[in-house]
Amino acid sequence: MDSTELLHYACNTVVQHGNLFVMKPWIVNGLATLVAAVSLPANAQSDEPPVTFEVAADAISETMHQYHFDPAVLSEPEFLAIETRVRAHAERAQSREDFVEGFNQIWRDGPFSHVVLRIASASAEETATYLDTLRVGETGASLTWSGDVAVLTVTTMMGLDTIEQIDAAYAQIADRGADALIIDLRDNGGGAFAVRPLVGHVLQDAHEAGVFTSRRWTDLHDAPPTQADAETVVPWEGWSVRTFWRDVQDELLIRVQFQPIDPAFDGPVFVLTSSQTASASELAVDALQSSGRAVVLGEQTAGEMLSQKLFDIPQGFHLYLPIADYFSAHNGRIEGVGVAPDIAVDADEAMAAALERAGEVNR
Fold first, then answer.
1. Residue 152 near residue 13, CB atoms below 8 Å
2. How many angstroms separate the Cα of 253 from the Cα of each of 1, 187, 217, 289, 305?
3. How far apart are CA 114 and CA 108, in angstroms?
4. Which end of the chain has the smaller Cβ count within 10 Å, N or C?
5. Residues 56-110: pLDDT tens digits?
6. Which of 110, 99, 106, 27 is CA-nearest to residue 68?
């Protein structure tokens, strides 16, 4: 089984993957661990030279300093303390698995999200190419009904099939008719471009969502972009992981503008959130809320809204690190803050609250 087949098997076996235009730490856990277990033999069973984890730690630091969206953060005490801990861990790690586990444990409470280390099974380029063709299975999005209320549950923003399932759900809603729509994002950790149809099918007009900023912006500016800054660039139309990773590093700003998509649902929309609603799903929540098309019920979202890219690291590792920040046109920076619900309720009570309000709309 070659690396592409392994990635296909892993991605279709572990389906709870997703985070904005990249992958979130727990998105890659099952995928990378499974692939590594099959494709990388232990050092004792390999002809490869011994792994030097200090070399990997140095390369991680160099990569972080070269590509992180805001180098100023990397000189702050919290980050420097983490670097020291990673270096000390590298000196005592006994295996690749040990090094990866310890690194990710150290970063679990890091100063910013979207940093994760994994054992590599294919090159970063091969993995990025596969992400744009990824199919996660039948659990990406599903439509159910509570009377005349449509309930669209979306568990990831990854996957071509998730996009297809969302489009199909809106087509069914249009055919059958619905008094209201509930979009359940409580278990959605993010992903990529399924956010586009999820938002677009409820819009009547174009909606200005926000901008991504990467190293090019922070090298030239000390403040977040304004709406006037955003309007100096045309809305981004790449809509692929590889294209986004390239453009966000090449361009000064990536402007996110959602366009209406047919068939359009024009009835009441309710969005359910939890503290696990993260990354690309936070982009969706923010856009649906700020467009005026949805009432958000549940908990404050995770506040993990960065864009991460995959890099090759010597000694057989992949590093995912954040290459871009995101600023909502209406709510400002989401990383470290999250999106506040319009109606705060425990996540496990959000569905009942939404169904009650959906029923009230039509009385």
1. no
2. 41, 30, 7, 23, 16
3. 10
4. C
5. 999 999 999 999 999 999 999 999 999 999 999 999 999 999 999 999 999 998 9
6. 110
pTM for the predicted model, two decimal places: 0.87
Using alpha carbons, select from 112, 11, 100, 44 the residue that is nearest to residue 322: 112
User: Comparing C-alpha atoms, which of 133, 285, 260, 134 is closest to residue 195?
Assistant: 285
Two tokens, residue 176: 């059958």
Q: Where in the chain is the domain with CATH 3.90.226.10?
A: 141-307+323-361
Question: Which of 3.40.50.970, 3.90.226.10, 1.10.10.10, 1.10.155.10 would CATH assign to domain 141-307+323-361?
Answer: 3.90.226.10
Indicate the angle between helix axes 96-107 and 25-39, nearest 10 degrees: 180
Mean pLDDT of the chain: 88
HEC letters along the chain? CCHHHHHHHHHHHCCCCCECCECCHHHHHHHHHHHHHHHCCCHHHCCCCCCCHHHHHHHHHHHHHHHCCCHHHHHCHHHHHHHHHHHHHHHHCCCHHHHHHHHHHHHCCCCCCCCEEEECCCCHHHHHHHHCCCCCCCCCEEEEEECCEEEEEECCECCHHHHHHHHHHHHHHHHHCCCEEEEECCCCCCECCCHHHHHHCCCCCCEEEEEEECHHHHHHCCCCCCHHHHCCCCECCCCCHHHHHHHHHHCCEEEEEECCCCCCCCCCEEEEECCCCCCHHHHHHHHHHHCCCCEEEECCCCCCCEEEEEEEECCCEEEEEEEEEEEECCCEECCCCCCCCCEECCHHHHHHHHHHHHHHHCC
Give the pLDDT confidence of 254-296 residue by residue, as tens digits: 999 999 999 999 999 999 999 999 999 999 999 999 999 999 9
Dig out the tokens for 216 from the structure. Answer: 């090019």
Q: Buried (b) or exposed (e) across 40-60, using 16+ Cβ within 10 A?
A: beeeeeeeeeebebeebbbbb
User: What span, in angstroms and rounded, lies between the C-alpha atoms of 38 and 56?
Assistant: 22
What are the two backbone dihedrals, phi and then psi, of residue 315, each rounded to the nearest 5 degrees?
Answer: 80, 10
